[in-house]
Amino acid sequence: MNLSSRDLRAFLALVEERNFTRAAARCHLSQSAFSTLIRSIERDLGARLFDRTTRTVETTPEGRLFEASARRALAQFDALVEDFRGYATRARGRVAVAALPSLAAGWLPGVMTAFRAAHPGIDLELFDVLSDQCLALVRAGRADIAVAAAAPQEPDLQVEALCADRFHLVCPRDHPLAAQESVRLKDLTGYPFVHLARTSSVRQHLEAAAHPGPMRPVFEVEQLPTVRALLEAGFGISVVPALTLFHFRSPRLVVRPLRAPGITRRIFLVRLRGRSLSIAAQGLYDLMRARKPATGAAAR
User: CA angle 133-244-126, nearest 5°?
Assistant: First the structure.
């Protein structure tokens, strides 16, 4: 037995119309085809569902019993289809993104706002973590998309370049380097330096570019707002990417471009290789690609 939703709708049409001609028209079938379909349903179920006379059609006790089950089954089927259609049309769904804190605080909220305006029924989840944690969340299936600073070489991840982020000096307004239009890595030597933690992509890029040049670290902290507070207090200087400069808007600080070939932080969109994104996640992914972060002069 292989009853379909079409069979159930034909059965209920006859229950409600109590007339083969009207029920057949409602189902867009000829009367002979409709009669054959009803006989096939009765044969498959092994019971007579209707008493037929020349004037009326009435449901049998078995027909009334089957009617209740048919209505429940069709209601569940229609709800299933409507629920899935909501996901297919981005009327509902869920997308989780793991992003570097600087991007999660600066660029990404604007993208998410635009996405939410277009698709208000989709729930968004955001993890603001460092690159290694971003990738781990994608691998674990907790994040659909990651926005990370390092291009991973692992074969299970698919990466796409999003933007390149150049570095800048940030220092107190009365610092000697503030008088220069731009600075080089060697200009930083000897000045007290406020570092981010070694696990941060900013620290890793800077140390790779500056090696083996010496620096005078006075603090090593986790958060960019802490770096800003220490610089405002006069504890030293720091170097940060363009996409983090919104943290350093202060009348007590100045920003100068760092002239250092090769010291560029590349930002990537990351997802699981060989796995399709959900329709909702693909929509957000495409919007991220279309609204890439502003770097360089635009970020300043």
Answer: 40
